[in-house]
TrEMBL record:
It catalyses: (E)-4-coumarate + ATP + CoA = (E)-4-coumaroyl-CoA + AMP + diphosphate; a long-chain fatty acid + ATP + CoA = a long-chain fatty acyl-CoA + AMP + diphosphate. Residues 17-379 form the AMP-dependent synthetase/ligase domain. SUPFAM superfamilies: Acetyl-CoA synthetase-like. It comes from Phoenix dactylifera (Date palm). Its EC number is 6.2.1.3. InterPro entries: AMP-binding_CS (IPR020845), AMP-dep_synth/lig_dom (IPR000873), ANL_N_sf (IPR042099), LC-FACS_euk (IPR045311). It is an enzyme of class 6 (ligase). Catalyzes the conversion of long-chain fatty acids to their active form acyl-CoAs for both synthesis of cellular lipids, and degradation via beta-oxidation. GO terms for biological process: cutin biosynthetic process; phenylpropanoid metabolic process; wax biosynthetic process. It comes from the Eukaryota. GO terms for cellular component: endoplasmic reticulum; membrane. Pfam families: AMP-binding. GO terms for molecular function: 4-coumarate-CoA ligase activity; ATP binding; long-chain fatty acid-CoA ligase activity; trans-cinnamate-CoA ligase activity. This is Long-chain-fatty-acid--CoA ligase.
Amino acid sequence: MEQTARNGWWPWRLDIVQACNGYSLICVPLYDTLGSGAINYIIEHAEVDVVFVQDKNMKEILSADCKSAQRLKSIVSFASTTREQIDAATNSGVKVHSWNEFLQMGKEYPSDPLPPQPLDICTIMYTSGTSGNPKGVILTHESHATFVKGVDLYMEQFDDKMTVDDVYLSFLPLAHILDRVIEEYFFHKGASVGYFQGNILALRDDLMELKPTFFAGVPRVFERIHEGVLKAVAELRPLRRMIFNILYNHKLSWMRAGYSHKTASPLADMLAFHKVKARLGGRIRLIISGGAPLSNEIEEFLRVTSCAYCVQGYGMTETCGLSSIGFPDDLSLVGTVGVASTYSELRLEEVPEMGYDPLAVPSRGEICIRGKTVFAGYYKNHELTKEVMIDGWFHTGDIGEMSPDGVLKIIDRKKNIFKLSQGEYVAVEYLEKVYSFTPIVEDIWVYGDSFQSMLVAVVAPHEDNTRRWAELNGRKGSFTELCALEELKKYILQQLRAVAEKNKLRGFEYIKGIVVDPLPFDIERDLVTPTMKKKRGQLLKYYQSDIEKLYRTLTEGRK
């Protein structure tokens, strides 16, 4: 295998990663949530030579759609391979090896390690993107080593030191940058890593089995934990439920007064909250939420009831993980992503078109990051790299608000791109263009709250097509009366779903609920500009109550 060989795989295997590191081989993660088209693109774009793959994903590589598989030299399956798979690969000029065969080859043909230099490429990690092809983020060995050293310094500030007895539950999406660097830190400390089964419904079983001390996830995971605890509390007898609430408020008041979660109320922990800790495996010491904002209510709830440290962090693939992180036992940081992490510098840059000024009060602007953990550029995309890297500062596109003592809060997105609570990026302009192909839709505004996991929309129906639908379904009335019908809402949702399926949108890009407005978005209500561009801030303000009501209905319907 050549020094410059690229390797992709399902699933993310840190043993393979470390082996590649030892021989200066570049790793390129592949994961099936990107879709077969993206996998085909990445293999070709990154010039991948060898793919490590689970047997269930072998068909993706060998399918007719994955034309770039023909450039591969070898495929290594973690399970045994079938004759059909071997024949299909051979016809494409690719060698297939089982995992055991691969290990045996290493024993028969050993070679000395070839340690990398700091600025050598460690990995090319492709971001899922919002539309178009994924971007290949180049991360060096220096970036990874700097991050691990920074976590060491961060953890040294607290009484609870990381030891070889610690266990990390790897739950984040496979090939997620935060998951990778956390695992590397745990291996650096000689601690243990366990992997969840891949089924969120079985997450509690994984927690009980692994009994982790450290858990990192996206807000949606913690929302489920919060919902589960509240459901259990609601099923208690009135007296016990009242006692739980009293203990909660008692401990919260002492934590707000400056006491740590351990000293605020040991009695409350013993009587009530040890049961919440037990639901998380019983040994949890540190919880980190990232990928999207965690609501203040849930963060506060976890800080009180989990009997563990709980913080939020902020970072991107381009920053090799967290660039800011909160401090445990400081309730003033609830709702923020903390301060700049070790070896990272943060600053805000003015965004005049959105009215954000770092020199104003409060200080607001685009978040820019500098440091050795920042990526080296986008692979084979120098122009895009120049757009986001200016004078050594990476321009994130996120809008932040920074307090005088350096505490950061994420408040907006420079472009019309945002994250849902499970951490998935959504490009609303792209989705609006796709959904506008629906004949029943005259205009549409897609909205997603970063504290929610679902997209909703306001739809202005096409009047002629709506009347045609009404005639076919025996409905009469004015256009306004027709738009108020629940049957029309259901029909529009069906048509939107059909368009989403036809255009192969991802599940989180499906619209789950709509508000129907018989009036098109107009200048008179200040919803669009004279050139008919949507004023998204005004749209949210105008439809705020309808959107909030719709989210409540959807949330209640899922319980």
